[in-house]
């Protein structure tokens, strides 16, 4: 069987930390929460916390440098998702969308177009507020990804 994956969390603005911990404990999967010193996080059983400088890309750089093939990374950052996919990790959004080769180029291009619009004075909408359904969908997707990975490891 392959090494046990770690769930690596871009934890600065992650709204589903509690759901991640619940799934991880249920499936005995370690979690690594990475956040800047501006965020107070408590380690616990199976939950490690790494705190980094509050620099713009500090969390992303730490994750990119420490993620391993087969890890599951939870992030809202498409750029970080691109990097971890290239390293053989699985990338999920906090709403349960799995980033992969079929969608990441489109998402990166869309992010670029929206940034260009904002720089030229245009307005863009932010993300919708998280709902209970979003949290359930995320938890179900994370559970499915972990189950699928376990099945692949056993075959």
Automatic annotation (TrEMBL):
PANTHER family referenced in this protein's UniProt entry, alphabetically: UPF0178 PROTEIN YAII (PTHR35146:SF1)
Ranges annotated as biased composition (Basic residues): 115-126
Pfam families: DUF188
Species in which this protein is naturally found: Paenibacillus nasutitermitis
Family matches, as CDD domains: PIN_YqxD-like
HAMAP family the UniProt entry points to: UPF0178
Protein name: UPF0178 protein GCM10010911_31550
Superkingdom, taxonomy of origin: Bacteria
Region: Disordered, residue numbers: 115-134
UniProt family annotation: Belongs to the UPF0178 family.
């Amino acid at each position: 069987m392959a090494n046990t994956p770690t769930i690596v969390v871009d934890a600065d603005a992650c709204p589903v930390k509690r759901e991640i911990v619940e799934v991880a404990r249920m499936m005995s999967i370690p979690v690594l929460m990475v956040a800047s010193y501006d965020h107070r996080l408590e380690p616990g059983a199976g939950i490690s916390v790494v705190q980094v400088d509050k620099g713009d890309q500090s969390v992303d750089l730490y994750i990119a440098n420490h993620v391993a093939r087969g890890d599951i990374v939870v992030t809202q950052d498409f750029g970080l998702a691109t990097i971890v996919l290239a390293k053989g990790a699985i990338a999920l959004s906090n709403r349960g969308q799995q980033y992969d080769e079929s969608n990441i180029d489109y998402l990166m291009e869309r992010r670029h177009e929206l940034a260009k619009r904002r720089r030229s004075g245009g307005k863009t909408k932010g993300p919708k507020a998280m709902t209970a359904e979003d949290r359930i969908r995320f938890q179900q997707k994370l559970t499915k990804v972990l189950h699928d990975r376990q099945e692949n490891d056993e075959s």
